[in-house]
Amino acid sequence: MARIDPGLHRELKKYGATGLTACMNCGNCTATCPQSTDNEVFPRRIIHFVQAGMTDKLRGSVEPWLCYYCGDCSETCPRDADPGESMMAVRRYLTGQYDWTGLGRWFYKSPAFQLTAMALTALAVVLAFYFLHGPIVTDHVALDTFAPVASIELADRIGFVILAALLLSNVIRMATWILRSDTDHPVPFALLLREFLTLPVHFVTQKKWLKCDAASEPTGRSLAARLAWLKSTRWVRHFFLVTGYLSMMILVEGALPQFQTDAIRPWFHWTRLLGYYATVMLMWHGGSFLVGRLRKSDPIHKFSTPSDWMFLVLLLAVAFTGILVHIFRLSGLPLPTYVMYVVHMAVVAPFLIIQVPFGKWSHMAYRPMGVYLAKVRQSAREKLDAAAGELAPA
Amino acid sequence: MTEKRRLGAFICHCGGNISDFVDVAAVRDAAGREDDVVVARDFMFACSDGAQAEMSELIRSEKLDGIIVASCSPKLHLNTFRGMSGRAGLNPYTYNQVNIREQCSWVHRHDTPAATAKATRLVRGGLARSRFSRPLTDLRVETVPAVLVIGAGVAGIRAALALADMGIAVYVVEREATVGGNVATWGKLFPHDRPGSEIVATLLDDLNKHPNISLFTNAELTAKSGSVGNFTVQVQLRSETISLHVGAIIVATGLEPYTPRPGEYGYGTPGVITLHEYKQLVDEATGPLTYQGKRVKTVAYIYCVGSRQGSDPDLEEPNLFCSRYCCSAACHSASLASTADPDLDQIHLYRDMRTYGRHEVLFEEAGRKGSVFMKFAGENPPTVESSDDQLTVKLRDDLAGGEQAEIPADLVVLVAGMVPRERAKLQEILRLPLSKGGFFNEIHVKLRPVETVVDGVFIAGASQGPKTVAEAVASALAAVSKSAALLLKGYIDLPPLVAKVDASKCTLCDNCFGACPYEGAITRQEVDGRQVAAISPNICKGCGGCVPVCPNEAIGVDGVTGTQVTAAIDAMMKDRVHA
Fold first, then answer.
1. Chain mean pLDDT for chain A
2. How far apart are CA B222 and CA B528, in angstroms?
3. Which residues of B touch A22 (CB under 8 A)?
4. Cβ-defined contacts of A318-322 (< 8 Å, 24+)
5. Rounded to 5°, angle at Cα A138 from A136 and A142
6. How far apart are CA A338 and CA B59, in angstroms?
C-alpha cells in the first residue's frame, strides 16, 4: 500500500515530459514497442506510474533503461501524448533520483544552475593553471614544462577516483531500489555474480539497442544486406561515438605520459592514430546528433532540453579545443598551445565533473546496469517458477 | 350447417423452411378437399409480390369471400395478408393466418409425416374459423386536438412548444412551483458550456409567449378516463380540481439524481460530496476551489456511484443500468475545475470510461488539462477513509498491474447517476409498465421507443431512462411526432376485434369487470329496462380475458367468436386426416 503523490506528473514536466496526462492508458505504445517483453512491460505502465504518482514503483523500475527511444510509440500514440519523450523524461528524473547528493535534480530542473556550476568549475580550472602553472617557455613549445604531465596525471587520477566513486554510489542506489521492488522474486547473491559478465559486455557493445531495429533486420545470409542494415541503425552511430570516448579514455587515463608529450611522434604512432580516431568520431557523430536535434529529423531528436544541447555542445567543444592544442603544438606556436590547453581543460573538467555522475553521461553506467538487472531478475523469476512447478502437485 | 362459402387456401413453402419438413403439396391437396374450399394453391414465398398478386387475382376471379394463408407466425405477416385481402376487395377481417412454420415445421424437423399431418389439421382449423368469419369494419374514433404534457422540464417544455407550433392545444402540468426540473439547477453543461438555467429561461420565455400552451404549476394529475384520442383527465391545482379533454398524454417526469446511502464511499463525511454538489462548487469558482473555507488541492472522483451495481452483493434491488451522462459530466466538470485552478490535482477512479460518441473529446480534454485516470474493477471498488481532516481513498489500481494505492484527497466527488423520480401515484393513474430499473417502459426499445402499451400515452425524456439533455429533447420530439400523427388527422381507426356483450344473455354477475385489465372498458348500461354489462369498443383491446369468466357465454370477441373457436377445434380434432 503506497501513498501516492498526485503532483508527480507536474514534477516530471520539469524534466521535459510533455503529454503525460494526455495518455489514456490504451497501451498501443506497449504493443508497438520492440523492447517491451512479458515481464518488462512499457512504456504504458511506466507512464501510468507517473500519472498515478507512484514514486516508489517508478524508482524501482528498470524499464526506462531498456528503452532506446526509437520513437515508434510516439508515432503510434492516438492521443499524441509522446510516450517516447515521457520515457526520456523518466530517465532524466531517475538520474536525478539515483544521485544521492541531490545536485543532479538541480542541474536538470534549472539550466541556469547547471550553467553556473559549469562556469565555476571552468573558472577554478583556469585559476588553478594561472597560479600553479610551470615556467612559460616561449621559444619553442614546452607543454610539459607549462603543465608537468606528472601533476596532470595525478589530478586526472584523483578526478577519476572521485567521479567513479560518485557514479558507483548512485549505481548502487539504483540497483538496490530495482532489486527491492520485486519482493515476489528475491535475487540471490550467487545469481548477481553468475550474470555479472552482462555488465561489461553491454557497457562496451550496447547490443540490446539493436532489438529496436529487429523488424528491419535482414533474414538471409547476405553480409552486404546485413551491413547495410547495421549502417541504417542508430546503434551504429552511437557505437562509434563510444569507441571515440573509449579511445580517449585509454589515452588520458592509461597513457597520459605518452599522449601529452613535447616530442613530436611520427603520424603513424599509435597515440596519434588513436587520438585522431577519437577526434573524428567525437566530432563526426557528435556533430550529426547536433544536426539531428536542430532538424528534429528523428523521433528521439524531436524534443531537446537544455541539458541535451549542453551535452552536445560541450562534446564538440572538447574535441575542437583538443585538436586545436594539437595543431598549435605541431605548428610550434608555444603561447597559443598553452592558452588552448587551458581552454581545453576548462571545457573537459566541467563536462566530466557535471555530466558523468550527475547528468546525461551517467547513462553509460545506468544502461548496462539496467540490462544486467533485468537479466538477473528474469533468471530469478525463472528459477522460482521452476521451483514452484516442481512443488506443485502433479 | 351454415351458408355456402367460397374459401381460398394458400400454403407457403417459405423457401424450404416449411417444405423441407412438411409435405406442402399434400397439405394443399387436403385443404382442397375441405368443405367450401374453391381454390387451394401453394407458393414458394407467399409474402412475395408475385404470390400476393396471384392470390389477389384468385380472390377476384374466384369471387372468394374468405381466405387463409398457412405460413409463418401472424406476428410476422398477419398485416401483410390482411392488407392484400383489402386491396383485392375482400374484407380484411375475413382473413385468417395459420402458423405452420414456428408451430409446426421448425419444431418437428425429425418427422415429416407427423409434421404434415399436424399442418393439415392446423389448416383445417383455420378454414373452419374462416367459414364463420364475418366482414368487420374498423372503429373510427374522433380525436381531441389537445395534449397533456406531464412535467415541465426541458423535455416537457420542448414537447409542448413543438406541439403548439402545429396548432395543437397543450396543457403542461408541473408538480413543482417552478419549471425547468433538474436542468434549471445545473450550471455550465457539456458540450457547449451553456448554463442549464439559461437553457430553461429561453424555453420558458418561448412557452409564455405561446397562445396554445397553458402551464399549470403546483399541479398534479389525479385521474384519467377515456381512451386514445379522447381522454378526460383531472388535474389538482392548489385550490381547485379542473377537468381537461385531451387526445394524447406525454409523460416527461424526468429523473432524480442518485443520493448515495449514508456511508456509501464515505458519503456523509465532510469532504465527500456528489457530482451535483461539486458542480455547484465549480460553477461558482473564479479561482482555486474552496470547500468549507479551505483551499482544495486534490480532488478524487469515484465513478459509477449508484449505477451498474450488479456486482454489489449487499443490494436487494441494485441499479443495473449505466446512467450514461455521468462520465461525460465528470470529465467536463474536471476541465472546468482545471480552468479555474490549473494547479488542482484531479484523480478519476473509474470503471469504464463511457464518454460515448462526441463526448469522447471531453475525456481527452480532461486528460490534457491534467486529470489523471485510474481504473478499478466493479467487484473491487475503492474505499474512502477519513482521519484528522484528511480523506484517503484506497484502491487497487488495475492500470498499475493491481497496485494498491492510497490517494490523499481534500475532496472526494461521488459521480452519482440517475434514478427514477417517485412515480407510484402516476403509475397507478396511467397504468404504465416499468422497466427493470424502475423507469417507464416503451413498447419496443428500438422501433417504438416513445409509445407505451397504453394507446395515446407516450413517454419522453429521462422518465424513460437516463438521458442527456440532447437525448431527452430528441425523445420528447419523437413523442410529439407520434402524438401529432395521432391527432392532426382528426380521427383514429381502431381494429374492430373487440369484445361484445349479448345483452339478452347478460345477468350482470360482475365477473367480467374483475377480469378486464383496461380501466373503464366495461360499464353498466340499461338495455330494455335491464342493467347489463357493456363494453366500450374504444378501450377494449380484444384480449378475451372476459370471455371465459362469463357463466352465460354472453361475451364474444369479434374475429374469434365462440362459434369460430369451437368450429376450429372440432375441425382440427376430426378423426380422419386426408394426408
1. 92
2. 35
3. 364, 367-368
4. A318/A282, A318/A344, A318/A347, A318/A348, A318/A351, A319/A278, A319/A279, A319/A282, A319/A283, A319/A286, A320/A283, A321/A347, A322/A275, A322/A279
5. 65
6. 120
* Whole-Å CA distances, B392 to A51, A135, B486: 18, 71, 57
Length of chain B equals: 579
Dihedral of the CA atoms A206, A207, A212, A215 (nearest 10)?
Answer: 160
Determine whether the interchain pair B367/A23 forms a contact, defined as Cβ–Cβ distance below 8 Å.
yes
Compute CA B168 distance to the chain's CA centroid, rounded to the nearest angstrom: 24
Average pLDDT over residues A166-180: 95
Nearest to A21 among B370, B374, B399 (CB): B370
Output the pLDDT for position A221: 84
Higher pLDDT, A35 or B579: A35
**How far is Cα B212 from Cα B160, in angstroms, rounded to an integer?**
9
pLDDT for the residue numbered A392: 61
pLDDT digits (tens, 9 = 90+) for A13-22: 999 998 999 9
- With CB atoms and an 8 Å threshold, state whether A51 touches B372: yes
Question: What is the average pLDDT across B532-545?
Answer: 91
Sign of the dihedral defined by the CA atoms of residues B355, B357, B362, B363, in that order: positive
DSSP 3-state percent helix, strand, coil across chain B (nearest 5)? 30, 30, 40
pLDDT for residue A293 is more than 80: yes
SS3 content of chain A, % helix, strand, coil (to 5): 70, 0, 25
**Which amino acid is it at B363?**
F
Which of A21, A49, A50, A77 would best serve as a mutation to test chain B binding (most B beta carbons within 10 A)?
A21
pLDDT value at residue B2: 65
The residue with cell 523518466 is: A90
Q: How far apart are CA B426 and CA B416, in angstroms?
A: 25
Per mean pLDDT, which range of A220-224, A344-348, B165-169 is the poorest? A220-224
pLDDT, tens digit, 9 for 90 and up, residues A76-132: 999 999 999 999 999 999 999 999 999 999 999 999 999 999 999 999 999 999 999
What is the DSSP secondary structure assignment for residue B138, as one 8-state letter?
A: P
Closest-CA distance, A49 to chain B, in angstroms, reads 7
A391 has pLDDT over 70: no
- What pLDDT is stored for residue B255 in this prediction? 93
Residues B446-453: contacts with CB under 8 Å, at least 24 apart: B449/B475, B449/B478, B450/B475, B450/B478, B450/B479, B450/B482, B451/B482
Burial code (b: 16+ CB inside 10 Å, e: under 16) for A277-311 equals: ebbebbbebbeebbebbeeeeebbbbbbbebbebb
Asked if B345 and A7 come within 8 Å (Cβ–Cβ), the reply is: yes
- Report the alpha-carbon distance of residue A316 to residue A297 in Å, rounded: 20
- What's the start-to-end Cα distance of chain B, in Å? 25
If pLDDT is split at 50, 70 and 90, which confidence band does B210 have?
A: very high
- Distance from A378 to chain B by nearest Cα, in Å? 18
Which ranges of A182-222 would DSSP assign to H, the alpha helix?
A: 189-194, 198-205
Contacts of A7 in chain B (CB under 8 A): 345
CA distance B33 to B234: 60
Inspect the interface and report whether the beta carbons of A45 and B401 lie closer than 8 Å.
Answer: yes
Question: Distance, in angstroms, between A4 CA and closest chain B CA?
Answer: 6
Q: Over the stretch B423-459, which tens digit does the pLDDT of each residue have?
A: 889 999 998 999 988 999 999 888 899 999 899 999 9
E strands, B20-86, in order = 37-43, 66-71
Contact B157, B207 (CB under 8 A): yes
Q: How far is CA A197 from CA A300, B233, B382, in A?
A: 29, 91, 46
Interface residues of B toward A, Cβ cutoff 8 Å, are 298, 343, 345, 347, 353, 363-364, 367-375, 394, 397, 399-401, 403-408
pLDDT confidence of residue A387: 82
